[in-house]
Amino acid sequence: MSEHEHGPREPGRTCAGARLHIVTGKGGTGKTTVAAALARALASDGGRVLLVEVEGRQGVSTLFGLPPLPYEEREIDSVPGGGSVFALAADAEAALMEYLEMFYGIRRAGQALTRLGAVDFATTIAPGLRDVLLTGKATEAVRRREGGRRRPEGPFRYDAVVMDAPPTGRIGRFLNVNSEVAGLARVGPIRNHADRVMEVIRSERTRVHFVSLLEEMPAQETRDGIAEISDLGLRVGMVVVNMVRPSLLSEAGLATAAAGEIDLEALATGLKAARLDDADALSVSLAREVTAHALRVRLERRVRGELADTGAPMLDLPLMEGGMGRAALEALTNRMIEQGVRP
């Protein structure tokens, strides 16, 4: 019997043992925030976690209140329990310079190519090259061990790597780098590099997590993304339902409000007892708000059911009313840990 037939798995189970966590989601769902909270949760037991941003938006630095991050790994946060979160803003141009130096020893030539605009030209006409360079940096960090090649059996440099990946509409093409570079290089160093990248991405210790809202469009993109990733033979992780708002009514109250059967007279009487002005008009406006809330809750429950039908484990994160800041990020981290996400 499949996991889908058994019902959704717990988030903690699907994260356990994974070393590369790829986080995707429709724009506006809070993907970067979720990736950061996940990195902190995975570091909560004293671990070292690398958070990699690949879109060049500097969303991680903004979230943590830091200056723009350079193309180098640096510690950005200490987590209660002794853990550390490091961050890297991956850049295709810098990754190409590193690649040329590593495999050909021609960094200066690469710098000359940059000045001539050849790098931008190459990655524009061959976007698969850009993607393999960006994913390659994250997957190299997954494989890296303390002591490098001198100690191939030494401990891993990072306990886990979290990638703040492109949106769901592009995630399949971004991760399927072997297919993307097939027409560019069938043999040689670029192809070998792509093969090593795909070896990590296809590993049983890699998970692709999806961030959604309880809204129709993000949920549809999530379902489509899960189907695409599954078709590629990659391992789906959890669905993080972000910005969840609580229901303000009882089940009976929700049913009454959704049916438009609110007792306006009783509502107006209560408002008059509270000595509010123009209670009759206010009761009509308030009834409309309550009905809209009930209909939204009904829609969210339907959307949640559709997400649950994917069979992926679901993890809820609340809407942070005061906006994102240090305290809010810590609260989201704690909610992840409470729902089983640990190293």
Describe the structure.
The structure is a single chain. This protein has 343 residues and is α/β, with parallel strands linked by helices. It has one domain: P-loop containing nucleotide triphosphate hydrolases (Rossmann fold, 3-Layer(aba) Sandwich), CATH 3.40.50.300. The protein is built from 16 helices and 8 strands. Strand 6 (206-212), helix 12 (216-231) and strand 7 (236-244) form a beta-alpha-beta unit. The longest helix is centred in the C-terminal third of the chain and has 30 residues, at 279-308. Residues 1-8 have low confidence and may be disordered.
Give the gist of this structure:
The protein is α/β, with parallel strands linked by helices.
What is the CATH class designation? Answer: Alpha Beta
Q: What's the CATH topology name?
A: Rossmann fold
**How far from one another are the termini?**
28 Å
Strand order of the largest sheet: 3-4-2-5-1-6-7-8
Q: What proportion of the residues is helical, as a percent range? A: 40-55%
Domain ArsA/GET3 Anion-transporting ATPase-like: 21-192
Protein name: ArsA-related P-loop ATPase
Pfam family, one: ArsA_ATPase
Organism: Nocardiopsis lambiniae
